[in-house]
Amino acid sequence: MSGTWHANSWLSGAGRVASLRGGRGTASCTDDQRPLRVATALTEPLLLGRALTVELGPAHDRTSVITGLDFSLAAGRTLGVVGESGCGKSMTALAIMGLAPSPHRIGGVLRFAGQDLLTMPQDRRRQLRGADMAMIFQEPMTALNPVVPVGVQIAEMLIVHDNASETAAWRGAVALLDRGGIADPARRARAYPDELSGGMRQRVMIAMAIACKPRLLIADEPTTALDVSVQAQILDLLLELQRDTGMAMVFISHNLGVVSAVADDIMVMYAGRALETGPAQRVLTAPAHPYTAGLIATLPDIGRRQKILPVIEGSPVNPRNRPPGCAFAPRCPRVIAECRTGLPAMVMVSPGQEAACIRCAA
Amino acid sequence: MTEASVSVWQLRWRRLARDRVALGALSVLVLLYGLCFSAAWIEVWLDVTGVDTDLMSRFDPIDARHWLGSDEAGRDEFTRILRGGQISLSIGLFAAIGSSFVGTVIGATAGYFRGRVDMVLMRFTDFMLAMPALPVLIILAAIDLTKLGFSQDFVRSGAAGYWRIVLIVTLLGWTTVARLVRAATLSLVEREFVLAARAQGASSLRILWVHVLPNAVTPIIVATTLRMGSVILTESALSFLGVGIQPPSTSWGSMLTNAQELMASNPLLAVYPGAAILMAVIAINFVGDGLQSAFDPRADPH
Fold first, then answer.
1. Which of A9, A100, A131, B164 to pair with B26, CA 20 to 30 A apart?
2. Same structural domain, A171 and A83
């Protein structure tokens, strides 16, 4: 099995080099790899994480921020990652991108398109970024370089990854802005980021992220900083782009409502671990883990005035002193004595749906 | 217009071209350089000399030939100012740009790579800063260049003294820029757009060149323009100590130093080079301001 993976990784690596050298001056950097994508899709999912752990800090003082994460994502599908601030959502994204802050140690398995990301040379990993896997950040205000016009920033992508000429890259950038739903793209391309609204900046970020037709798009809270009406437009845009390009998406949000609109599968994270995974429909309508149920209960109902908004009591644990047993136990309404001693394993609660809760296992 | 590709340098140039004050200052500078470097022709035209002494016509008053009179050795003051400007302006330009370049490379490297690289480079910077400038200048200026393999002719020519000063001032002047650029880089690499650039597959060099340095341009330009003024003055100190530009060559700085003794009898001889230095430094500062707002769209254009 691993032999096949190697062959694939070598082949797609060669395809990338060919497309980099080819320099046809268009935005289609990955067209010649399409047959290979089908081949890899048959053997394993596009993105695969097994027992993924991330530890930050120097060797003598490591803090584990992600522990034993399992996930897989096929082309054209969306994985929603949900959890409170500090639960490791963003760190998961950065680990996939290869951008976890140094010094760090990453363990387990992390594969992308049949290639082992963790053993891959840094240089090859860098070529993957932007071309095959792209990322959108939460804050469009700060994620764009303030002293470079947005069109030039998008054109950069095409010049770096596609070896496009400056003219072709500029045309490509204008076309991408148009694709991102920006009116009068030729004029907006010359604008500096602070001359654009938040929604437009996020569209620019998206245009930049899809410039090289990535196979995987990681969206880290892409709508959190935006108005609700703009949020919906951005979500629509992402879904439309996904339909058109068949890219896979990892969609990170603390907002279950937003995730439910885009995700096929959901992974609920708490203190660096997955507490529940499964098809979005199942997880949202029949949550098995008390934490998931609590998150859903905190969603306010539109049109119903509530005297007291439901909350999950307490606050998330500090990753430096996690309690033994289930990390959620101190806040769990259904806690029993066993919760505080043994670490619950993932158990299947319905087809495709798993939860890490002793109460589910019993 | 809208179809043409636009590079960030074109946009920066256009922003600069719209800035009237910067353009005005730039034309003043160009004019000054042009005048200074055509001193030889102006001498022929006016039939005067800014180089040879003529003890029969010391302290001549202003007239049609001697636009600014003549100095204590009977040299025409106006063309002597121009000849001094050749040295001062070009030393100022080369040494300021040189030290900014060295300082930017060292500061950006230290700030971007941090850790040990930062430690080594910054301790080296501290070492350079801690060295007393003047003794070092004198020692460096006393190095026998023939022992370093330069020809006798070169060493005796004025060019050797000139480049020696450029080199010395550059070597001792980069530390401020290095510290400023390091500080700017340290804070810029923490910004999200640098992380976003890495997520787009940008290499370290590209991140530095496209994302860090254009955002750090303000301290670089401020330091460079300030440096140009102080380089002109450092050169005069060196010349005063006899290790800089030697007669018959001159510079604004050494003219100013010469005029010190004549302050009571002939104060105008100090005013002329002083005014020339002032004009050049102010013009350079305005151009620096213009460059700064050309680079940073958030800066107010005048």
1. B164
2. yes
pLDDT value at position A362?
60
Closest among A73, A120, A76 to A98, alpha carbons compared: A120
Q: Exposure of A249 by Cβ count < 10 A (0-12 exposed, 13-18 middle, 19+ buried)?
A: buried
Those residues of chain B that have pLDDT short of 70 are 1-6, 157-158, 240, 242, 299-302
Contacts of residue A304, Cβ cutoff 8 Å, sequence gap at least 6:
none
On whether any CB of chain A is under 8 Å from the CB of B200, the answer is yes
Q: What is the mean pLDDT of residues A319-323?
A: 77
Nearest to A160 by CA among A208, A100, A117, A97: A208
- Smallest Cβ distance to A148: which of B191, B201, B210? B210
B268: its two tokens: 């105008």
Q: What is the CATH number of the domain that holds A117?
A: 3.40.50.300
What string of H, E and C letters represents the secondary structure of A199-261? HHHHHHHHHHHCCCCCCEEEEECCCCCCCHHHHHHHHHHHHHHHHHHCCEEEEEECCHHHHHH
Same-domain pairing of A192 and A324? no
Judge if A309 and A161 occupy the same domain.
no
Please, where are the H alpha helices in chain A?
2-22, 34-43, 89-97, 122-128, 150-162, 166-179, 185-188, 198-209, 228-245, 256-262, 280-285, 290-297, 358-361
Q: Which residues contact B11 (CB under 8 A, 6 or more apart)?
A: A149, A152, A190
Q: What are phi and psi of A195, to 5 degrees?
A: -95, 0
> Do residue B200 and residue A134 have CB atoms under 8 angstroms apart?
yes
Instruction: Give the pLDDT band of residue A84 (cuts 50, 70, 90).
Output: confident
Q: Six-digit token pair at A146?
A: 């303030």
Task: Mark yes or no for CB contact B201/A130 under 8 Å.
Answer: yes
Q: How many domains does chain A have?
A: 2
User: Residue B110's closest CA among B221, B246, B212, B198?
Assistant: B212
Which residues of chain B from 96 to 155 reach within 8 Å of chain A, CB to CB?
A: none
Tell me the per-residue pLDDT of A172-230, one tens digit each, with 9 for 90 and over. Answer: 999 999 988 899 999 999 999 989 998 899 999 999 999 998 999 999 988 888 888 88
Which parts of A223-353 fold into alpha helices (H)?
Answer: 228-245, 256-262, 280-285, 290-297
> Is residue A273 in a domain?
no
> Phi and psi of A86, rounded to 5°?
85, 10
The answer, for B187 touching chain A at a CB cutoff of 8 Å, is: no
**Which residues in A lie closer than 8 A to residue B211 (C-beta atoms)?**
145, 148
**Three-state secondary structure call for residue A64:** strand
Class of CATH domain B15-295: mainly alpha
CB A253 within 8 A of CB A224: yes
Q: Are B220 and B100 in contact (CB under 8 A)?
A: yes
Å between A327 CA and nearest CA of chain B = 30
pLDDT tens per residue, range B94-150: 899 999 999 999 999 999 998 899 999 999 999 988 888 778 777 877 777 777 777
Between B4, B193, B298, which is nearest A194 by CB? B298
CB atoms within 10 A of CB A285: 10
> Which uninterrupted H or E stretch holds A52?
strand A47-56
Q: What is the pTM of this model?
A: 0.77
Q: Report pLDDT digits (tens) over A243-273.
A: 999 999 999 998 888 899 899 999 999 989 9
H, E, C per residue of A186-203: HHHCCCCHHHCCHHHHHH
pLDDT score for A135:
94
Closest CA to A140 of A100, A82, A80, A182: A182
The Cα–Cα gap between A234 and A236 comes to 5
